[in-house]
Amino acid sequence: MKIKIVIAVIALFLLAVWAIFIEPNLLFVKHYRIKNKNLCGIRIVFAADFHLRKNQEYRLKHVIKKINEQKPDILLLGGDFIDGISLEKSFSLPKTAIYISKINAPYGIYSVVGNHEYWSEDISLKEILVKHGINVLSNENRLIKVRGKKLYVSGVEDSFSAEPDIDKALKNTGKNVIALTHSPDIFPKVPDSVFLTLAGHTHGGQVHIPFYGALFIPSEFGKRYSDGLIIERNKKMIVTRGIGTSTIHIRFNCPPEIVVIDFE
Question: How far apart are CA 102 and CA 225, in angstroms?
C-alpha cells in the first residue's frame, strides 16, 4: 500500500513539473493546408496570446526565431501581447514590438488587439505597435497583393472586451477575405463571404484531460471553439492554442503553438 502511495506522489510531482516548467515553454508549429486557388502558393503565419511576463525575453526571442524559420509571406497576430492587465508585470510592449518588427514577412504584419490590451486601458498600446511597423486593424481591412494575387485581411475588434463591427470591418472588400479577430465567439456572425476566420483567446483551455478535453474555455460557446480547424456551414475558422498562458501559468496536454497556413 505504501509503495502505491509513493508511486502516486512521484507521478503527481512529475506531472506538476511537466505542466508548470516544461510544457508551457515548448513551441510547436501547426500546419494547415487550405484550398483556395486564388491564393495558391501564399503562406501565412498566425500567432496569438503571447502573454509575455517580465522575465520572458528569452521566450520572445525563441518565438521570433521560430516564426522566421517558417518564411511567411504575411504575419497575422491575434493580440494579447501583455500578461494580465498590469504593464508593470508584463514584458515591455515597445521591446516586444521591436522584436516582432524584425520578422521577415515581406507583405506585411497585421494585428488585432486582445482583451488584455483593452483591460490595461493604456491608449498608447496601439500606437506603439504601429510605430514599429505592425498594422493594427480595428474594424477595418487592408488589401494585400502577393505576387499578383489579392487578398483582404479584415480586423474585427474583440467581442469579449470591445465593440466588434463586422460590417464596418468588411466594408469595400472583394473576394478572398480573411477575418482576423481575438476571440472566436464572433464566428457565428461572420458572413459566408469570409472564407477563413483566425482567432485565439482560448489557449485551447491550457489543460486537456484525456477523453474529456479542455477543463475550461473562456467562451460563451464552451468547447465548441476551443482550438483547431472548425467548419460550420462551409465556413472555416482556425483557433490557435496560442503561445503563452494566462491566470494560471500551466499547460497540460495542450502545448503552445504558432500556426502556418499554406493555400493550395
Answer: 32
Model pTM score = 0.95
Q: Is the pLDDT of residue 6 over 80?
A: yes
Per-residue pLDDT for 122 more than 80? no
Instruction: Give the count of domains, the chain.
Output: 1
| Residue ranges in 110-214 assigned as alpha helix (H) | 115-120, 125-131, 166-169
**Res 123: pLDDT:** 66
Domain that residue 241 falls in: 2-263
| 3-state SS string for 76-112 | EECCCCECCCCHHHECCHHHHHHHHHCCCCCCCEEEC
Closest CA to 184 of 212, 151, 218: 218
pLDDT for the residue 120: 76
The residues near 226 (Cβ < 8 Å, ≥ 6 apart) are 202, 204, 205, 213, 214, 217, 219, 239
CATH code of the domain containing 75: 3.60.21.10
